[in-house]
Amino acid sequence: MTDSFPLRIGTRGSPLALAQAHEVRDRLCAADPALAGDDMLAIEIIKTTGDKVLDRPLADVGGKGLFSKEIDEALLDGRVDLAVHSMKDLETWLPGGIALASVLEREDPRDVFISHKAASLDALPEGSVVGTSSLRRQAQILRRRPDLRVETFRGNVQTRIRKLNDGEADATLLALAGLRRLGMAEVATEILEPDILLPAVAQGAVGVTCRVDDTAISARLQALNHTPTWQRVAAERAMLAALDGSCRTPIGGLAEIDESGTLTLRGLVAKADGSELFETARTGPANEAEALGRDAGEELRRRAGPDFPE
Q1: What is the DSSP track for 236-282?
Q2: What is the pLDDT of residue 30?
Q3: Which of 5, 16, 24, 100 is the most buried (most CB within 10 A)?
Q4: Do 17 and 158 form a contact (C-beta atoms < 8 A)?
Q5: Phi and psi of 252, rounded to 5°?
């Protein structure tokens, strides 16, 4: 296929999603300056079910696909030519006809603790309320601090910070990557190391999808791909796939690559109340990322058992 202009970039409409879409647009222009001209690239905002349903946890209304289903449909229908996603929101298995064409260089994947009442997660008074919509965060918080209460906090970054400021919770947790992309990193009270809170699979990474048969767009997007990030994300998503993971299961995963090209993957699966948690790790060549992730996921699945979590 050949390009037809303008190239339409599909995205959600939150400030963070738009910041990521503009980053992709800018990188496309840097790779091909001809795209910087008027009417060459257009950003199309698509409202997803996840943006509309804000009063229930994601696990109760369908999980990760809530943030991509309508965008996938627009891509398959030809209404957009490429789509920008937070990789942690992408379903484990992409719909038929859609391919992940590139992953941008990863931002810092760590979570942050935000509170006006304590300087750290460990310093929160007993019985404090932590607002989050993430079962992964909930499980790890309650594992570390079973004396805390966790309540559902939905909405974009700005909405959750407003809710915190309005006193709806004593603390909340957000991804540092999103705050940095929004120029809001200063709101973080404490950056949580992975030993305290293991991030979500692919947290901090931005992925760009296109139609499988659109070779022209695919070629453009492959020029944006950051290979070490692709390998890290591939390991984490392979682990998730082996676990058959969804938003209904608290799962954390983080792969890192050192200067020698060695990949280290840490993963965990837990019960939402933090009462049980299984961890594992793998180390090996980065070019074996998927095999390492799959092996880690299979081990966690065996150890947790077929009925875990109930």
Answers
A1: HHHHHHHHT--TTS-EEEEEEE-TTSEEEEEEEEE-TTSS-EEEEEE
A2: 96
A3: 24
A4: no
A5: -125, 150
The whole-angstrom separation of Cα 48 and Cα 169 is 26
Neighbours of 173 (CB within 10 A): 27
DSSP 54: -
Tell how many helices (H) and how many strands (E) occur in the chain.
Answer: 10, 13
Ranges of residues in the chain with a pLDDT under 50 are none
Is 13:47 a contact under the CB 8 Å cutoff? yes
Instruction: Return d(Cα 299, Cα 265) in angstroms, integer.
Output: 13
Distance of CA 201 to the CA centre of its chain: 6
Q: What is the pLDDT of residue 1?
A: 54
As given in the structure block, the two tokens for residue 245 are 């993971």
Cβ–Cβ under 8 Å, residues 253 and 240: yes
Q: What is the dihedral of CA 251, 256, 262, 263, to 10 degrees?
A: 20
**109 contacts 228 by C-beta, under 8 angstroms:** no
Please state, in angstroms and rounded to a whole number, the distance separating the CA atoms of residues 76 and 71: 9
Number of Cβ within 10 Å of residue 228's Cβ equals: 17
pLDDT at residue 60, rounded to an integer: 57
Q: If you search the block for the tokens 């993963």, which residue do you land on?
A: 267
Structure-token pair, residue 83: 């789509």
Structural domains of the chain ordered from first start:
7-106+205-225 (3.40.190.10), 111-192 (3.40.190.10), 235-302 (3.30.160.40)
What pLDDT does residue 249 have? 85
Report pLDDT for 68: 85
What six digits make up the tokens of 261?
């090209």
Q: Is 271 helix (H, G, I), strand (E, B) or coil?
A: coil
DSSP-assigned letter for residue 309: -
Q: Which of 89, 111, 214, 295 is catalytic?
A: 89
| Residue closest to 41 by CA, chosen among 19, 15, 9 | 9
Of 254, 256, 262, 257, whose CA–CA distance to 237 is shortest? Answer: 254
